[in-house]
Write a structure and sequence with these properties.
- Strand 6, helix 7 and strand 7 form a beta-alpha-beta unit.
- This protein is α/β, with parallel strands linked by helices and 318 residues long.
- The strands form 2 sheets. The chain has a 7-stranded parallel β-sheet with strand order 8-7-6-9-10-11-12, with helices on both faces. A 5-stranded parallel β-sheet has the order 2-1-3-4-5, with helices on both faces.
- It is elongated and about 75 Å long.
- It is built from 12 helices and 12 strands.
- The structure holds glyoxylic acid.
- The site of glyoxylic acid has 6 residues, from loops.
């Protein structure tokens, strides 16, 4: 029997290609480029495909799904799936899987990396050293904020939020959290309302999933509730923060600093961010350790293989 046809939108690891090749005819793999396919390209590639392996930067909207008449399943190599129209998939009986759990600890590590870099001005002081400006030691050089003893506010207490809370406790921080759906105690963290979290935290870390409800979840009015000495860390998604408002607030000194791994419209970002020393900018790499990225790719492949074999998906969304 002919193998079902699979489109892979992105460069993935050879071990996953090998595993997938045993079960699928790989009709297209975007091995040559890290540039996402355009919408017309994606539609064209999916014309005959039954399976799709995609990731965060591929927009699989209702038009793409409607055009992909043969499609049976989408496996995204990410935990967030806001880029895929899950309702349209459901209506067509298209299965969808994501990659939860395997990236939790790595992503929480990175939230802390951004938090520490922002608090202790790591990027800014490194730029100073690299540009040859360092002429000698001084008491007031790059004085930053203490992390130990500070208050950490986590917006979104899912798996990753819980792993960040654990790290905060390890650093001797007081940990607050806010979550809209589940009000449970997590790793010594205290549940507070959204306003209390914004007003009381020295570090606000955003880990909420992106959806129409969390579009511009943090905007000027929220930032203005924060302490002028506070830092905002976004490892959630571009669009959770209204970047224009954040930039204006940083310029006006409404908060001290920001650590941003995600941006509205990424990979484009507001040029104004580049002009500010007190913003640490990274290219959506929170889950990027080799081991974890390997696990994400493998899990997505295992979900696809489970579907062709008629087995339950390991990590289904629908
Ligand atoms: C990355 O952003 C993910 O959702 O896995």
């Amino acid at each position: 029997m002919a193998k079902p046809s699979l489109v892979i939108t992105r460069r993935i690891y050879p071990e996953a290609i090998e595993a997938l090749s045993a079960h699928f005819n790989i009709a297209f793999e975007n091995q040559a480029s890290d540039t996402p396919l355009t919408k017309p390209e994606l539609i064209e590639k999916l014309a005959q495909a039954q399976y799709l392996f995609c990731t965060v930067a591929d927009k699989v909207d209702a038009d793409v799904i409607a055009a992909a008449t043969q499609l049976k399943m989408i496996a995204t190599g990410a935990v967030g799936y806001n880029n895929i129209d899950a309702a349209a998939c459901k209506a067509r009986g298209i299965r969808l899987s994501n990659t939860p759990d395997v990236l939790t600890e790595t992503t929480a590590d990175f939230a802390f990396a951004l938090l520490m870099a922002t608090a202790r001005r790591v990027s800014e002081s490194e730029r100073y050293v690299r540009s040859g400006q360092w002429k000698g030691w001084a008491f007031d050089q790059f004085t930053g904020m203490d992390v130990h003893g500070a208050t950490l506010g986590i917006m979104g207490m899912g798996r990753i939020g819980g792993a960040i809370a654990k790290r905060g406790a390890g650093f001797g921080m007081q940990v607050l959290y806010h979550n809209r759906s589940q009000a449970k105690q997590e790793n010594g963290a205290r549940l507070v309302d959204r306003e209390t979290l914004l007003k009381s935290s020295d570090f606000v870390v955003l880990v909420v999933p992106y959806s129409p409800e969390t579009h511009h979840f943090i905007q000027a009015k929220d930032i203005h509730l924060m302490k002028p000495t506070a830092c905002l860390i976004n490892i959630a998604r571009g669009g959770v923060v209204k970047d224009d408002d954040l930039l204006a607030a940083l310029r006006a000194g409404k908060i001290r600093a920001a650590g941003l791994d995600v941006f509205e419209g990424e990979p484009a970002l507001l040029p104004g961010f580049l002009e500010l020393e007190n913003v640490v900018l990274t290219p959506h790499i929170a889950s990027s350790s080799r081991a974890t990225r390997g696990r994400m790719v493998s899990l997505a492949a295992e979900n696809l293989i489970a579907h062709v074999q008629g087995l339950p998906l390991k990590t289904p969304v629908i």
